[in-house]
Amino acid sequence: MTTGQRFIPSHFTRSGMSLIRIARELSDLQRDPFSTGPVSPASDDDPRHWVTRLNGPPNSPYANGVFAIDIQFLEDYPRIPPHMTFLTPVFHPNVSAQGDIRLAEFVWDQWCPAITIRMFLLSIQAMLSDPNLLEGCILNEKVAALLLKDKQRFEKEAREWTVMHAV
């Protein structure tokens, strides 16, 4: 260490604080998965990469489905949101064909470090029950158009996808 430099323990760095928060949230979710479903690291080597199995919300076309979601934490988490992607195909206007998820309340400019992964997962469940058709939230135009035109047909198709991919 050169003169004038101070040693800063790794747990006080942004990256160290991020890992502490990630570990705390993982422990909380594993201790009490509530209605979201089980969460675990994707591997023992990378604590910033999780996989969860999200339970489809009851009384929705996604009921009884279990949806795999990939969660990637960047080094600046919780100052910036994690990137979440459905690994299970989902027929929904707020989910792209690649599995990207658009939640209006969790876009970069509205993200708040107080938001936990549990809150995020509960919001995804709520989104499945109640699609957001506001401008900027739609990632699948064809699915959104079907929902607007024929809600019963949309729900039938969403149920079929759930049975085919998530049960």
Automatic annotation (TrEMBL):
Residue intervals of the UBC core domain: 17-167
Designated name of the protein: UBC core domain-containing protein
Organism: Aureobasidium vineae
InterPro entries: UBC (IPR000608), UBQ-conjugating_enzyme/RWD (IPR016135)
